[in-house]
């Protein structure tokens, strides 16, 4: 009786988890498609095909060149998570781990943005217009989100 009860409980937990994963995936897919063009990086997807290929390759190069920095940031986040799980919090170590993760993120972002600047400098006026639309959509969506939260 106890074994069958444990199996039923496990089955219910697993089914709830799977249902949540499916629902979350559906929301992610739906929002992912409607959120296109809300940053410089995603705005690059709206460039003409030849420019889009060059743009994406440039960003891939940055990620490849930044691979170790990305890994360092991931490791710092894992360390922070481990520190949060400890019975006694070491706030100093947690702050240091989070700072390392933040610095890695900022480094990668700076490199990506610099490569986008270089791309834009060599791009046509039309290409820069497409990238500008990505920035204004991003700013517009953030402003509307802030105004919805304000009373």
Topology summary:
Blueprint: H1 2-34, H2 40-43, H3 49-65, H4 67-85, H5 91-122, H6 125-149
Helix pairs in contact: 3-5, 4-5
Give an overview in words:
With 151 residues, the chain is mainly alpha-helical. It has helices spanning 2-34, 40-43, 49-65, 67-85, 91-122, 125-149. It folds into two domains: 1-32; 44-149. Helices cover 86% and strands 0% of the residues. Helix 3 packs antiparallel against helix 5 and helix 4 (67-85) packs antiparallel against helix 5 (91-122). The termini are far apart. Mean pLDDT is 81; it is low at 33-37. InterPro entries: Metal_resist. It comes from Mesorhizobium sangaii.
Number of DSSP-assigned strands: 0
Shape: flat
Cα radius of gyration in angstroms: 22 Å
Largest sheet: none
Report the portion of residues in β strands.
under 5%
Q: What is the distance, rounded to the nearest whole angstrom, between the alpha carbons of the first and last residues? A: 55 Å
The number of helical elements comes to: 6
Query: Which regions contain 5 or more consecutive residues with pLDDT less than 50?
Result: 33-37
Q: State the helical fraction.
A: over 70%
Oligomer: single chain
User: Structural class, from secondary structure content?
Assistant: mainly alpha
The succession of helices and strands, N to C, reads HHHHHH
Number of domains: 2
User: Kindly state the mean pLDDT as a whole number?
Assistant: 81
Pfam families: Metal_resist
Organism: Mesorhizobium sangaii
InterPro entries: Metal_resist
Protein name: Putative membrane protein
């Amino acid at each position: 009786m106890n074994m069958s009860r444990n199996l039923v409980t496990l089955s219910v937990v697993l089914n709830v988890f799977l249902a949540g994963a499916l629902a979350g995936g559906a929301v992610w897919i739906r929002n992912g498609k409607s959120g296109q063009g809300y940053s410089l990086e995603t705005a690059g997807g709206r460039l003409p095909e030849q420019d889009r290929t060059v743009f994406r390759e440039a960003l891939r190069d940055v990620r490849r060149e930044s691979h170790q920095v990305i890994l360092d940031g991931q490791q710092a986040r894992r360390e922070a998570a481990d520190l949060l799980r400890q019975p006694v919090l070491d706030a100093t170590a947690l702050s240091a781990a989070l700072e390392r993760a933040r610095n890695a993120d900022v480094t990668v972002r700076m490199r990506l943005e610099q490569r986008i600047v270089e791309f834009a400098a060599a791009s046509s006026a039309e290409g820069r217009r497409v990238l500008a639309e990505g920035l204004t959509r991003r700013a517009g969506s953030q402003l509307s989100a802030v105004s919805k939260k304000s009373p």
